[in-house]
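lol forgot to send this yesterday, sorry. C-alpha cells for the thing we talked abt
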C-alpha cells in the first residue's frame, strides 16, 4: 500500500455507512468509474477511500435523487462537460421533472374525481354483488396513463 499516513483511509463499508448506502452500491459506482478507491490492498482486495470522497459521494447521491442516470452523473462529476453541456443537462432534467409533475397532478385530480364519484355512488355500490364491487374497486386502484380516462369515464357514469 502507498503511504497515506497524513490522512485516514476508510474501508468501503465505512464510507458506504457514512453515506447511508450499501457496499454493493459502492461497487456499482466503482464499476462505472464514478467513485474510485484511492487504494486497493492486493492481498485482501480491501478498497480504501479518502474521507473527503464522502462529499463526492453525496453529490452523486443528490444527482441520482434528481433522476440523473449513472452515465450522466459520471459525465457531470468527471469535470469533462462544458458549462453549456451541464446547463443543457440540467435544463433537460428540469423539463422531464416538470412533465412528471404535470402527469402526477393529473393522476391526483383523477383520484379526487374518482373518490368524489365513489362517495356519491355508494348507493349504487351497495346494489352490486361482492364480485362486481371487487372488480370495480380493482379498476379504481389500477391507475396508469393508459387507462385513467376510461376508468374516470366509467366512474363518472355510475
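and heres what i got for the seq, position by position
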Amino acid at each position: 500500500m502507498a503511504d497515506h499516513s497524513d490522512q485516514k483511509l476508510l474501508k468501503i463499508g465505512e464510507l458506504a455507512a457514512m453515506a447511508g448506502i450499501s457496499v454493493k452500491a459502492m461497487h456499482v459506482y466503482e464499476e462505472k468509474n464514478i467513485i474510485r478507491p484511492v487504494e486497493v490492498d492486493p492481498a485482501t482486495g480491501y478498497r480504501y477511500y479518502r474521507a473527503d470522497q464522502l462529499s463526492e459521494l453525496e453529490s452523486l447521491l443528490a444527482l441520482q435523487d434528481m433522476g440523473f442516470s449513472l452515465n450522466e452523473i459520471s459525465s457531470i462529476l468527471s469535470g469533462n462537460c462544458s458549462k453549456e453541456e451541464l446547463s443543457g443537462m440540467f435544463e433537460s432534467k428540469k423539463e422531464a421533472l416538470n412533465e412528471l409533475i404535470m402527469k402526477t397532478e393529473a393522476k391526483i385530480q383523477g383520484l379526487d374525481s374518482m373518490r368524489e364519484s365513489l362517495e356519491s355512488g355508494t348507493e349504487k355500490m351497495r346494489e352490486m354483488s361482492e364480485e362486481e364491487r371487487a372488480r370495480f374497486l380493482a379498476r379504481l386502484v389500477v391507475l396508469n396513463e393508459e387507462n385513467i380516462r376510461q376508468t374516470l369515464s366509467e366512474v363518472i357514469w355510475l
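The chain has a mean pLDDT of 83. anyway ping me if u want another try
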